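Hi F.,

I've been meaning to write this up properly since the lab meeting, where we talked about keeping a consistent format for the predictions we share between groups. The idea is simple: the sequence comes first, exactly as it goes in, then the structure tokens exactly as they come out, then a line or two of notes. No screenshots and no reformatting. I'm using this chain as the first example so we have something concrete to point to.
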Amino acid sequence: MGDGERPEAAKTTYREAMREALRDALRSDERVFLMGEDVGRYGGCFGVSLGLLEEFGPERVRDTPLSESAFVGAGIGAALAGLRPIVEIMTVNFSLLALDQILNNAATLLHMSGGQLAVPLVIRMTTGAGRQLAAQHSHSLEGWYAHIPGIRVLAPATLEDARHMLAPALADPDPVLIFEHGSLYNVSGELLPAIAPVDLDHAAIRRPGTDISLITYGGSLPKTLAAADELAAAGISAEVIDLRTLRPLDAEAVAASVARTHRAVVVDEAWRTGSLAAEVSARIAEDSFYDLDAPVERVCSAEVPMPYARRLEEAALPQTSDIVAAARRAVD
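Output, unedited:
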């Protein structure tokens, strides 16, 4: 590439972007290693780590026993010892088996040690429904983890964030949890090869608008953007906010958007009761009450264990039509 030429974007998928992020981390820092169930010879349950074992060897890409508490604990110990572990938990429901390690150890050790023991640990896991994995493998529990002080919670929803969030996450001295929505792995698009810094402290405006704010994250972003397209065809200009970082929450970006549009719809695949959508709605009520021209709308999953049958699963999940209907209620 000559002087002044811009790098060409390459066709890739969310899965491949995550894999390239892992490859770059392993190449650039010998302290980094990946561990988890089936991440090595099998290439990862969702194919994200395919080929990394052959490239970096079994010391850097380590298959673990089926014991989340054990290998998350081992990751915490490795981080305390100066390494930079990336721990993969197959799906978010399995992280509950390591909740004691995450909540009572990783999140609290820096505080409990008076600032002496940092835990620079990254934990990746697949979240969300929409793939007919039924009630035990379709949870959206990232809002639970966003409740916990001492950790950072990320939800990359775009190819750029999938590729570039991992590096600053590894540089964070505190534990970072990355939630990858399973429906996004096959999403494809163009991605520039150059490393771009990602700001982990601020939400992103994915589409500017003037009539209503659609606030979401993760796997709900594509549905929300599709809803914004439908609303635009009806003459309603919707601004789409991708929260990206769920803890710490960028409440200022939400308030600034509501100040521009005066209406808000919060889209969250988790259950409505006690959800992240509830927190965002409360922040809007606290920070933006006098900017609102209509009550805040929430679009969440039905409060049932996620059905296996495809039509029932689709009915239980937030869909583009639900987001459009909520926006219309707020605007009318």
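Notes:
The chain is about 35% helix and 20% strand.
The two ends are 53 Å apart (CA to CA).

If this format works for you, I'll send the rest the same way.

G.
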